[in-house]
């Protein structure tokens, strides 16, 4: 059964293959770049962005392997003009971009935390965002590279340093947490997943991922044990995939799907059709300066950061429990750029 989101995805594909732009009618085509386009997420995400009728130009950038990926994706008969760029082509890839999606960086292996990726990915994200600040400072940024709790503050600090920071433009992609929470909640309660919604707030690592099942729709009555198990499964969803892949990386296909949904929402917003999605942004909703909650995406990016709504006692405890880790990850990201 298709969810509203996957129905949207199917509609793109159908609209694209019929050669018309349902979602982009009357709007300018958008230039989108995928940085890390030859990777496990990058490849299927590039394909899905090529299928998005709101995209007229698609830049596929990676430090290796882009000619093959770009040649392959470019044969899909949709309107987005697709070009691959290698190391020397970053400026050209970015020039004029409306949306830049960053899945560049290393993934986890079993036994690692997302924070263990900081050593390598912090520098990758900082350098790519510096190029964004130089070549397309007005673009909306979707950051996928882990640890998201730190890479989003890194991106923000880098753009602040360059004098081009706009808090409305930077979003950490937490859509996969929402996708997982919807799937697990629907499965457990025998619901039609296409009718299910579950907000997920906080951050994107372990206990910082907090699904708000008390606000899930349609409502289902769950015992405390089931609620706890669903919450933990959502928090550990990434680890479940890392263990199943046994050393061959982390979620790529479900992540590409989630990233494509979120990028589509951003493009709809830019094109004047506001959408509300959960995402990790600069925030004053809690004590954490960056926090994921429902956000209205509109013509300039983030339009309104919604507060959390009523929380159950279990969720209030979860919110309290995540704060030390979330605040430490944010500070680590801030200091990586500020302290340099
Ligand atoms: N936000 C989320 O929910 C979420 C979900 C899954 C994975 N991730 C993260 O996404 C990242 C990528 O995962 P993956 O499975 O695609 O990894 P991967 O190793 O398959 O692909 C990463 C790609 O990045 C490229 N790359 C490395 N340095 C680069 C640079 N400086 N510029 C451009 N490209 C560069 C590599 O060449 C490679 O093609 C990881 O950090 C992973 O933890 C996040
Ligand atoms: O778990 C990971 O390392 C990748 C990603 O953050 C995920 O949630 O799948």
TrEMBL record:
Substrate binds at residues 108, 114, 146, 180. One of its GO terms (cellular component) is mitochondrion. The keyword Metal-binding does not apply. Gene3D superfamilies: Lactate dehydrogenase/glycoside hydrolase, family 4, C-terminal, NAD(P)-binding Rossmann-like Domain. Pfam families: Ldh_1_C (PF02866), Ldh_1_N (PF00056). Residues 174-337 form the Lactate/malate dehydrogenase C-terminal domain. CDD domains: MDH_glyoxysomal_mitochondrial (cd01337). The keyword Manganese does not apply. It catalyses: (S)-malate + NAD(+) = oxaloacetate + NADH + H(+). Its EC number is 1.1.1.37. This is Malate dehydrogenase. It comes from Edaphochlamys debaryana.
């Amino acid at each position: 059964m298709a969810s509203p989101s996957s129905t949207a995805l199917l509609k793109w594909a159908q609209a694209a293959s019929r050669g018309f732009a349902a979602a982009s009618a009357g709007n300018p085509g958008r230039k989108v770049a995928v940085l890390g386009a030859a990777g496990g997420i990058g490849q299927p995400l590039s394909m899905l962005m090529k299928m998005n009728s709101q995209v007229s130009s698609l830049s596929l950038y990676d430090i290796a392997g882009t000619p093959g990926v770009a040649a392959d994706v470019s044969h899909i008969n949709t309107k987005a003009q697709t070009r691959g760029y290698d190391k020397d082509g970053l400026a050209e890839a970015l020039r004029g971009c409306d949306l830049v999606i960053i899945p560049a960086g290393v993934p986890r292996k079993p036994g690692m935390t997302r924070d263990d990726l900081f050593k390598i990915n912090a520098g990758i994200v900082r350098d790519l965002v510096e190029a964004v600040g130089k070549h397309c400072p007005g673009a909306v940024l979707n950051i996928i590279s882990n640890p998201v709790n730190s890479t989003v503050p890194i991106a923000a600090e880098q753009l602040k340093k360059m004098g081009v920071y706009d808090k409305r433009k930077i979003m950490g992609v937490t859509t996969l947490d929402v996708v997982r929470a919807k799937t697990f909640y629907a499965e457990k309660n025998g619901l039609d997943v296409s009718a299910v919604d579950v907000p997920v707030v906080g951050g994107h690592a372990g206990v910082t991922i907090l699904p708000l099942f008390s606000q899930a729709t349609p409502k289902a009555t769950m015992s405390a044990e089931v609620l706890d198990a669903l919450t933990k499964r959502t928090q550990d969803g990434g680890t479940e995939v890392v263990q199943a892949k046994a050393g061959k990386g982390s979620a790529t296909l479900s992540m590409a799907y989630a990233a494509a949904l979120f990028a589509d929402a951003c493009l709809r917003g830019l094109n004047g059709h506001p959408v509300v999605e959960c995402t990790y942004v600069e925030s004053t909703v809690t004590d954490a300066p960056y926090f994921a909650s429902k956000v209205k995406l509109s013509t300039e990016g983030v339009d309104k950061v919604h507060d959390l709504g009523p929380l159950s006692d279990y969720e209030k405890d979860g919110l309290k429990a995540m704060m030390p880790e979330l605040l430490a990850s944010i500070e680590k990201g801030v200091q990586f750029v500020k302290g340099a």
